Amino acid sequence: MCFLVEKQNSSEFLLTFDLGEQTRSDQHVREMDKESEKWARILWDYLCLPHSLEKSDVIIGLGCHDVRVAERSAALFLEGWAPWLLFTGYQGNQTAGVWSRPEADVFLDVALRMGVPRVNILLETEATNTGDNICFSYRLLKERNIPANRVILVQQPFMERRVSATFLRQWPDQGEHTHAIVTSPQMGISAYPHPTVGTATDLITYMLGVLERIRDYPQKGFQVEQEITPSALSAYHWFLQAGYIPK
C-alpha cells in the first residue's frame, strides 16, 4: 500500500490572525505573543503533512464544522482529480448540537453551488467520528461498485496526520495497489481562524486534542502509530502549562 499526503505549508504566523475583511477588533482575531506563535506553528507543522496530488478514483470530504473542507473537495473534483465526490458525516464533536443537519448534507449544498453535478456526488450521513468516516465511506463505495484503489481524503489542515493514521488502520483494503492522498483547504495557520470555525485559541485547543488522539488512539486500535516529535510534545506541554484545555 502507498500512502501519499499533501503538505500544508505554514505561512507567516502574525501577531494577529488575518481574517481578510474582518476588522482587527473582531472577536475572532486573537493577539498572540511571540512565544505562543512559535509553539502554535510547531504544532501546526507537525499535524500537517507533505503532499502530492494524483488522479484518483474518488475524493472523500470528511465532515466537520468547516465548510472550506467542502469547498476544497468540490474544487478538486472540478479540477478533474477524480470522477466521484463523496461526503461523509452525520454530526461529530464540532457540529453536534450546533448544526441541525448532517455534515454531509451541508457539504452537498456547498458542492452543488460550486457546480458539481449531483449525479457525481455520494452521501454518507451516519458517521460520527473519523473512523466511521473511513469505514462507512468504504462500505458505500463497495455497495455502489465504485473502484476505490486511489483515494483523496479532505479534512481540516491540522487533521491531516490523524486522518492518514486512521485510514491506514481502518480502511478495509490495505493492498499494495491502494493509494491515499490527504489534503485540506490551502491556507497557512494565520488564515485558519474565522467566525464560522472559531478563534486562534480554539484552533490551539483543537490541535492539542488532535495530538492527544494521535498519542492515545493506536492503543485503542483506532489508528496506526505515529511518531510524535520532541518539538511537538514540547509545544503540547507548553500550552497545557499556559492553561489551554484540549478539545
UniProtKB/TrEMBL annotation:
Domain DUF218: 57-179
Highest classification ranks of the organism: Eukaryota, Metazoa, Chordata, Craniata, Vertebrata
Gene Ontology CC terms, in alphabetical order: plasma membrane
Top-level taxonomic group: Eukaryota
A Pfam match: DUF218
UniProt protein name: DUF218 domain-containing protein
